[in-house]
Amino acid sequence: MNWISNYVRPKIGSLFNRREVPENLWTKCDECGSMLFHRELAENQNVCTQCGNHMPITPRARFRALFDGGAFTEIPVTAPTPDPLQFRDQKKYPDRLRAAQRETGEKEAMLVVQGEIGRVPVVAAGQDFTFMAGSMGMYVGNAILAAATRAVERRCPLVLFSAAGGARMQEGILSLMQMPRTTVAVEMLKEAGLPYIVILTHPTTGGVTASYAMLGDVHIAEPGALICFAGPRVIEQTIREKLPEGFQRAEYLLDHGMLDRVTDRRHQREELTVILRMLLGLDPAVQADLPPPVLSNAAAVATQPAASAER
After folding, report:
1. What residue ranges do the domains of the chain occupy?
2. CA-based Rg of the chain, rounded to a whole angstrom?
3. Tens-digit pLDDT profile for residues 179-201
4. In terms of DSSP H, where are the helices of 192-301?
5. Exposed, middle or buried: residue 6 (CB in 10 Å: 0-12, 13-18, 19+)?
6. pLDDT at 301 over 60
7. CA dist., res. 177 & res. 268, Å (int)
8. Burial 274-286, CB ≥16 within 10 A → b, else e
9. pLDDT (mean) for 259-281
10. pTM, whole model, 2 decimals?
């Protein structure tokens, strides 16, 4: 028996040929620190199975869990003029856009779709916080106008999921102009007598909160979501006082009359079904053969970086 050939070489070879374990198999909850298997996390709509922490979720994954049978059709959005201010800081604005598109696989920070929720035709718009912190620029303004226009054409409700760090500084005053533009879009829905429901997710801040995110007929928030114009740290530094516990979180705003409901993400489909059907004068009860949502596509769920929002 050759000890080197039969034992030493295979042992050394196994060290170099050992397969690497993929890093994306597990996700760490930023609240309780639990290690969560990505497939179980995806099936739970990116809600921690241990503590119930609502972790970030992409609009596509959210819509798969929301629409009947997970089926929806994307609505095209007019692309704005690229880099209108020729803005540059450490990187050129077009370079930042391309990097965000590669990272997320999306064109921009908002996705607009149409489908059915509880057998009710609905137009939905969702902000993607992974795309430059979901910042509101001209594309987001165009997306909300496209969503409102399609909702009016189809005579159906608009459901919007907000998640943003505020306006996009690379577009300067043009990004701030989206506040009145989106307000006009919401007014189109109100004039047509169509429901506009907003689900505020973590975080919803800045000019987004000061415009379309707080103009809904019904406001629902996810548990623990930060919802504000200026963040609590900025306010504390300005007034030099300690803010109350949970200030500007969804539960605090609900207690002070700023929200209608705080609803777990896993129950939003059922709650939206009841609300939409009631607002449209339909029977809130839906038949038991309603097609279930699609929750098994783990690749559709992406955790998002903390960015500048306070968690």
Report:
1. 56-300
2. 22
3. 999 999 999 999 999 999 999 99
4. 206-209, 232-239, 250-255, 268-279
5. exposed
6. no
7. 31
8. ebbbebeeeeeeb
9. 95
10. 0.85
